[in-house]
Specification:
Strand content: 15-25%
Number of helices: 17
Radius of gyration: 22 Å
Oligomer: single chain
Number of strands: 15
Structural class: alpha/beta
Largest sheet: 7 strands, parallel
CATH superfamily of the largest domain: Glycogen Phosphorylase B
CATH topology of the largest domain: Rossmann fold
CATH class of the largest domain: Alpha Beta
Strand order of the largest sheet: 3-2-1-6-7-8-9
C-alpha cells in the first residue's frame, strides 16, 4: 500500500538572487516525482512559471525578495518594509506545511531559510508532525571555508543541523571538495551527511538541438560559442569582456563561427541595452532569457559561464568544453568550484582579477579548436545525485514507523477524492 500511495514532498527554495536555487530544486523534483510522489515547491522566484513544470509537481509562490548584500534583502516588487514581507513569507511557508502535511521537507542551501523564515516550520514538523523527515540539501561548495565557518558559527547553523534535520545531502563529490573537513562539521552532524555526487541535467535530442540552431539562425557548418551568466545580475563584466575579445580590433570572430549571449533576466536595463547594442554591431545573437537553456548548450561547441552549480552541471551533462569566469563577491564559491574542476581536468578558467579580452579570446579559441580532451574527461564526471537521492528516499520509506492505521487513513483519504 505504501508503494501505491504517492508520498508528499515539500521543497523550499528561497530564490533571492539568480536562478540557481529554483533550477536545482526543479531538477530534483522531476526525478523524485517518480518515487512516486506529489511535490509542492515553495519559491520566491518570479520566473518559476516560465519553466516547464512536470506532472505531480506544483509550486506556491511566496513574495519575492532581492539580495542586496549577504545580510540585506529587500522586497522585489511590493512597496512594503522588508520585515513585513518576511513575515508574510514565514506565515505562508508554515501554513503550506500544515495544510500539505508532507512526508519529506527538503530545504535548499539555507538551513534556516531566508532570515530564519523556515525555523518555525521545521520546529512545527519536529514537534507536531514527527512523521515528516526534514532534509537539508547543500551544493558542493558553499563559500570559502573561513567565511562559511564564521557564518555557520555566528548563526548557530551547526546546532540547527543537529536538531532540526534528519539528513544532510551534499550535491557534490567528497573527493573533489570535502565539505565536512573544510567547514569543520562536527562528528554528530557529519554522521547525517550523504555526498550524492552531482545532479545531471536533461540532454536534448538531436532533433531538439537542430530546432534550437534553426531558431537561432545557425547554419549547419557554423560553430557556436554560447555565453551565459545565469541570472545575470552580476554578469556584465564577463559579457562585456567577451564582446571586447571579438571586437574587430582584436581579430573579430573566426570564420564560420557565431556567438550567442544570454544576459540573464536580472542584468540591469542600462547594461542590457549596452550589451544588445554591441551584439547587434558585432552580429551576435543577444537574448535576455531562454527557457530551454539545455537546447542552447546542445547547439553550441564551447560555453562561457560564471561557474554556477547548475550551469556547470548542464554543460558537463552534454560534455561541452567550457571556460569559467567566476565571480568572487559576495561569495567565493564560483572561484573555488572553477579551481576544483580545473584541477580535475574538466574545464579551463580565468581568475576574474586577471580577466582581459586577450586572455579570454586565447582560451576560447583554444577550446573551440581543441576540446576533445575535455569531452573525454567529462565521461567520468560523477553524475550520481538523482540515483542516490531516490535511494535515500526509498531507504527512508522502509525505515519509517508508520502504523497500519496511519496507512489506512491515508489510503481512504486518497480514494475518497
Amino acid at each position: 500500500m505504501s508503494d501505491s500511495v504517492p508520498y508528499k514532498i515539500l521543497m523550499y527554495s528561497h530564490d533571492t538572487y539568480g536562478l540557481g536555487h529554483i533550477r536545482r530544486t526543479l531538477a530534483i523534483a522531476r526525478s523524485l516525482r517518480k518515487s512516486p510522489a506529489n511535490i509542492l515547491i515553495l519559491t520566491g522566484s518570479h520566473l518559476v512559471g516560465r519553466f516547464d513544470i512536470a506532472k505531480r509537481v506544483d509550486f506556491v509562490r511566496i513574495p519575492g525578495m532581492i539580495k542586496v548584500t549577504n545580510e540585506q534583502y529587500l522586497p522585489q516588487s511590493m512597496r512594503l518594509e522588508a520585515t513585513e514581507v518576511l513575515e508574510i513569507r514565514k506565515s505562508l511557508i508554515l501554513a503550506t506545511a500544515m495544510a500539505f502535511k508532507p512526508d519529506y521537507f527538503i530545504v535548499d542551501k539555507a538551513p534556516l531559510g531566508l532570515k530564519r523564515e523556515v525555523v518555525d516550520t521545521l520546529q512545527w514538523l519536529k514537534e507536531e508532525f514527527p512523521h515528516c523527515q526534514s532534509i537539508l540539501g547543500l551544493r558542493d561548495i558553499m563559500d570559502s571555508a573561513e567565511s562559511t565557518i564564521e557564518d555557520w558559527t555566528g548563526k548557530d547553523i551547526y546546532e540547527a543541523m543537529a536538531q532540526l534535520y534528519g539528513e544532510i545531502w551534499v550535491y557534490g563529490q567528497r573527493e573533489f571538495y570535502d565539505a565536512i573537513s573544510e567547514y569543520r562539521i562536527p562528528p554528530h552532524v557529519a554522521a547525517k551527511v550523504h555526498f550524492t555526487g552531482y545532479i545531471p541535467r536533461h540532454v536534448p535530442s538531436p532533433d531538439e538541438i537542430r530546432a534550437t540552431r534553426k531558431d537561432l539562425g545557425i547554419r549547419e557548418d557554423d560553430r557556436l560559442i554560447l555565453v551565459t551568466t545565469g541570472g545575470g545580475g552580476d554578469g556584465h563584466p564577463v559579457v562585456d569582456t567577451v564582446l571586447a575579445a571579438f571586437d574587430p580590433a582584436e581579430g573579430g570572430v573566426p570564420a564560420h563561427t557565431r556567438v550567442a549571449v544570454v544576459t540573464g533576466p536580472f542584468m540591469s536595463r542600462k547594461h542590457y541595452r549596452e550589451v544588445a547594442r554591441k551584439c547587434k554591431a558585432l552580429g551576435f545573437i543577444c537574448l535576455k532569457f531562454h527557457r530551454f537553456v539545455e537546447g542552447l548548450i546542445g547547439a553550441s561547441q564551447v560555453v562561457v559561464s560564471m561557474g554556477g552549480y547548475n550551469t556547470v552541471c548542464e554543460i558537463i551533462s552534454q560534455k561541452k568544453p567550457f571556460l569559467i569566469v567566476p565571480r568572487t563577491v559576495p561569495r567565493e564559491e564560483q572561484l573555488i568550484r572553477a579551481q576544483v574542476l580545473c584541477s580535475q581536468g574538466f574545464c579551463d578558467y580565468i581568475d576574474p582579477r586577471e580577466l582581459n579580452p586577450r586572455i579570454l579570446r586565447q582560451k576560447l579559441l583554444l577550446l573551440l579548436d581543441n576540446g576533445t580532451y575535455y569531452r573525454r574527461k567529462m565521461e567520468s564526471f560523477p553524475f550520481t545525485a538523482l540515483n542516490i537521492i531516490r535511494k535515500r528516499i526509498l531507504e527512508n520509506k522502509k525505515n519509517r514507523n508508520e502504523t497500519p492505521a496511519h496507512l489506512l487513513d491515508r489510503y481512504f483519504h486518497m480514494n475518497a477524492k
